[in-house]
Specification:
Elements: H1 2-15, H2 18-22, H3 26-47, H4 57-61, H5 70-92
């Protein structure tokens, strides 16, 4: 059980919430992590532990991840997939209107007017002064 939990925890750390961390969505990353780990522990406690003959640490640690029932594996993989899709949706979503602050035409992130490039995607920028017409 301990080895299985460590394996599932390792897979979860590698997938659930990491995309959200990269996007700097801290709360969402923690939420996905807690949901996946909590669901995994609950499924293991309900479907795996009652069927084991002994619950001493040696018998629990001897459990092979490949021997987990599909009723445990598929919900966990579904949650991991949903976490990945949610991070992808956040990454590809159009940026919200930032008001006065300029946004990069390539990636949509907020820009600093003192730089001639986007610090997020390194796209070169040409600044046009407000009020200047292109027709003049």
């Amino acid at each position: 059980m301990i080895a299985t939990l460590v394996a599932v925890l390792g897979a979860t750390v590698g997938i659930a919430g990491v995309g959200h961390l990269y996007l700097r969505r801290w709360r969402r990353a923690v939420a996905w992590f807690v949901i996946v780990v909590g669901a995994t522990v609950a499924l293991l406690a309900v479907f795996v532990l009652p069927g084991m003959s002994g619950t001493d640490p040696t018998s629990v640690a001897a459990l092979e991840p490949a021997s987990l029932p599909s009723i445990v594996v598929w919900p966990v993989f579904t949650l991991l997939l949903l976490s990945t899709l949610d991070a992808n949706r956040l990454a590809t979503a159009a940026p919200a209107a930032a008001g006065d602050k300029p946004a990069c035409p390539s990636c949509g992130k907020e820009l600093d007017r003192e730089l001639g490039f986007c610090p997020w995607c390194t796209a070169e920028l040409e600044w046009v002064e407000p009020g200047a017409d292109a027709d003049e």
